[in-house]
């Protein structure tokens, strides 16, 4: 859909909202997100912005007609974590929130969000990309940049804080609902959404399906997971945990030092989990100077690790983050929390 068509689509959606008296989010995350923004109704968003939030139609509404494009691609996201890809040729209804797909004679209930997209990419692609490298006999490094949203990446790029990472940006990716670490991490390493892998939020640690670690082990490949100070998920391998040895209030620097050392060894799969972007986003806000400066620091970490690791690298986030009155948070089905960047660096020649 071209820019002009997208503008018309947004205008039509806003008109529908006016007629049905639903609430709207600010057009940019430069303003704090209301605390109840993702707790009622349906949120409609694309890779760039929230179109509407808390949308509860008073009567059945045809989404494609509202958009002016019934063939627009959408993903229907439910509170169980399922993602159903279809077109905008669907009807929306409230109480309970549901999407009706006429050509499949199907009703999807407990809908929390609808994602409008041109090219669909997901954090679950991490599993399949890593598997592809392993199947080809290559080694691969995966880096989880906790809490790094697409909006943060775009701002950091604009300010030239990610001069290394920006060389390898591939596309945006959809995270999972609920957009928190346990769920996003599990989706990355299993290739499945929460409804299939069983990890829905922070209270879940055990996965119902095999992870990339189990897959690699079954292929007799050497694997390593570098984690912070706690074990987040029960996987087929035990993570290497880290402590804040230099007492600087951060653990990523210790993870970084371990990563440089281990990258020189004969591992087939190394998974690194950096936490500091998320920590600063919570404390200061996703676009705060302290957070942006730390993103620049992580960019330097990645560049140095990459100079040692002679293999492909996949980098993405478990979830994004939205601004609040006192800093930042995540866990809502909104653009800031659900859309993250995806990077891919091929093997050095």
From TrEMBL:
Pfam families: Phosphodiest. InterPro entries: Alkaline_phosphatase_core_sf, Phosphodiest/P_Trfase. Coiled coil: none annotated. Residues 1-21 form the signal peptide. The keyword Nucleus does not apply. SUPFAM superfamilies: Alkaline phosphatase-like (SSF53649). The keyword Metal-binding does not apply. Gene3D superfamilies: Alkaline Phosphatase, subunit A (3.40.720.10). Keywords: Signal. It comes from the Bacteria. This is Metalloenzyme domain-containing protein. It comes from Geosporobacter ferrireducens.
């Amino acid at each position: 859909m071209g820019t002009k068509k997208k503008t018309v689509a947004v205008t039509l959606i806003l008109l529908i909202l006016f007629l049905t008296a639903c609430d709207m989010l600010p057009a940019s995350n430069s303003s704090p997100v209301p605390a109840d923004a993702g707790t009622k109704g349906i949120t409609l968003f694309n890779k760039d912005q929230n179109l509407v939030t808390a949308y509860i139609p008073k009567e059945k509404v045809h989404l494609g007609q509202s958009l002016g494009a019934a063939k627009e691609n959408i993903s229907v996201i439910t509170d169980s974590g399922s993602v159903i890809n279809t077109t905008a040729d669907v009807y929306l209804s409230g109480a309970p929130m549901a999407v009706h797909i006429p050509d499949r004679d199907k009703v999807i209930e407990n809908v929390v969000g609808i994602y409008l997209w041109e090219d669909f990419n997901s954090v679950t692609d991490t599993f399949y990309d890593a598997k592809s490298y392993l199947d080809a006999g290559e080694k691969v490094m995966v880096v989880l940049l906790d809490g790094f949203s697409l909006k943060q990446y775009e701002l950091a790029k604009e300010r030239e804080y990610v001069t290394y990472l920006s060389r390898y940006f591939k596309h945006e990716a959809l995270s999972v609902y609920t957009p928190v670490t346990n769920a996003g991490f599990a989706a990355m390493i299993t290739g499945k959404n929460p409804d299939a892998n069983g990890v829905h939020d922070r209270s879940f640690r055990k996965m119902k399906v095999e992870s990339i670690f189990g897959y690699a082990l079954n292929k007799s490949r050497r694997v390593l997971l570098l984690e912070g100070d706690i074990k987040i998920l029960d996987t087929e391998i035990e993570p290497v945990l880290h402590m804040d040895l230099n007492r600087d209030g951060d653990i990523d620097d210790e993870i970084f030092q371990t990563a440089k050392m281990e990258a020189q060894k004969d591992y087939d799969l190394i998974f690194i989990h950096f936490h500091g972007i998320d920590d600063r986003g919570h404390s200061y806000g996703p676009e705060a100077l302290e957070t942006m400066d730390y993103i620049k620091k992580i960019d330097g970490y990645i560049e140095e690790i990459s100079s040692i690791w002679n293999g492909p690298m996949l980098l993405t986030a478990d979830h994004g983050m939205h601004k609040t009155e006192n800093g930042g948070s995540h866990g809502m089905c909104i653009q800031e929390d659900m859309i993250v960047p995806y990077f891919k660096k091929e093997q050095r020649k």
